[in-house]
Amino acid sequence: MARPYIRRVLKRAGVPSPAHPGEERDAARRIPLPRIFLPGEPEDAGPVDFAALFGREAPVELEIGTGKGRFLIESGVARPGTNWLGLELEEGYAALARLRAARRGLPNVRVERLDGREFVIRRVPPGSLAALHVYFPDPWPKKRHHKRRLFTPEFASAAARALAPGGLLRVASDHRDYWGVIEEVLGAEPLLARLSGEEAGAWSSGTSYELKFAASGRPIFKAVFRRRGG
Questions:
Q1: In angstroms, rounded to a whole number, what is the distance separating the alpha carbons of residues 112 and 141?
Q2: Where residue 75 sits, what CATH number does that domain have?
Q3: Average pLDDT value for the chain
Q4: Number of domains in the chain
Q5: Residue 76 lies in a domain
Q6: Is residue 68 domain-resident?
Q7: Does residue 83 surpass a pLDDT of 60?
Q8: Catalytic residues, which ones?
Q9: Percent of the chain with pLDDT over 70
Q10: Reading across the β-sheet that carries 83-87, which strands appear in turn?
């Protein structure tokens, strides 16, 4: 469901507005889930070809849960030699992030409305990512919803395989209980090594969530994991 201000921004830009809640739910029922195929791809497509997707060979960094695109777009501006792919399931946010990238003239930034977990598990070639970014994933706090959480042993294993040796997984959360799960799941993955605070250095995701939480004094949990060599 897109918020009213997102609808207004998209309307002023001439971008078709996301469906109203009832229409969006009906459309969601008609779309086979999970969404893991890029526009124009057949539903039996194999591993994604990042060079073909971006029209060039370059390191690829992937963000799951792009939101309004602040991190992705600022990264694309700062590092034009890298290809940046953002995955966002909410239609309004995906459309807004895509619009902002286009306005900044960033051919190295793509935003797609795809399921990040299943895309990494089923479509990302081994060793193809220079980095993977997951900032403030939905904690799904109710016990009956825990199965919807992104961080599971299966995802951790797939994420590690997707990273090139030495590639980094950066993750942040504001939810203390879910952070404990994230640390446990990633810490148990043998292909990942957690960097010490000194190795990781001071860093910020630069997302709207982190800026808002930091301003309110809300605790933020962050870590960096490196894909082991070999």
A1: 26
A2: 3.40.50.150
A3: 89
A4: 1
A5: yes
A6: yes
A7: yes
A8: 138
A9: 85
A10: 109-112, 83-87, 60-64, 129-135, 163-173, 221-227, 192-194
